[in-house]
Amino acid sequence: MSAVAAALSLGALVVNPAAGGAQTNPLQRGPAPTDASLEATAGPFAISSAVVARQTTFGGGTIYYPNDTSQGTFGVIAVSPGFLSPQTAIQWAGPRLASNGFVVITIDTLGPFDFPSQRAAQLKAALGYVTGSAPAAVRQRVDPTRLAVMGHSMGGGGSIEAVRDNPTYQAAVALQPWDFLQFFNGVNVPTMIIGAQNDTIAGVASHAEPFYDAIPAAAEKAYLEVAGADHFLGIAPNNPQAKSAVAWMKRYVDNDTRYERFICPPPSGTRISEYRNTCPG
Length: 281
What we know:
It is a single chain. The protein has 281 residues and is of the alpha/beta class. It has one domain (3-14, 31-277): 3-Layer(aba) Sandwich (Rossmann fold). The protein has eight helices and nine strands. It has helices at 3-13, 35-39, 93-98, 116-132, 136-139, 154-165, 208-214, 241-253; strands at 47-52, 61-66, 74-80, 103-107, 142-152, 171-175, 191-196, 221-226, 272-277. A nine-stranded mixed β-sheet has the order 1-2-4-3-5-6-7-8-9, with helices on both faces. β7 (191-196), α7 (208-214) and β8 (221-226) form a beta-alpha-beta unit. The longest helix is centred in the middle third of the chain and has 17 residues, at 116-132. It is globular and about 45 Å long.
């Protein structure tokens, strides 16, 4: 192990979630967040990974998980790529989310042409694999009651379908979602939709915005539109997209109110062309 890797591992092991005050949330993981920590390419936890072979219910993938076992178990997030895209298109999300205190599986789909409903089913299957069939080193770190989904393009549409059809999930983040002939007024899970201002594939006026509008306010929801970005925003670990996705998952999967200030009041800046939300209740 290199000196840098050793230092990261040691840093993960000595993280004190209660630093700066008494811990009141038993699901809280990691130190208090800052703008700098959320914008960093990696969070405070050193991580490992495990390759998942192709399954009958999803196309395999990679699991990323914190090395730390001292703080309890972690919520689980499954991430799907978009139409025609392999796992590598959204693989950035695995290390980014896992290093902030989650067990994450980025998946390949059974087929590159799979539609959002098929991707929703495969996200559910991947979560089931992580919580029930993954190697012991992964399962001992998993809280099977705290599940979330994320995806890009058709994977984004699939993530919204997944929480609509699985109301016990804790959160969803949809990156430039594409879907059709779907109704999302039945969603009651906190959902963040990230659109791209110059998206010509899943244009915000016909996809991201009406999806956001359809989700009931009682579910808790947010719409972030990144200025000047196109449909392929979701395949790279850029901010404010990655920063907002981490904050949303921490707030709702970990119930960590320390992250609330990155959601409400609305973030601003030259990279954000629009932001709407219900503000956490």
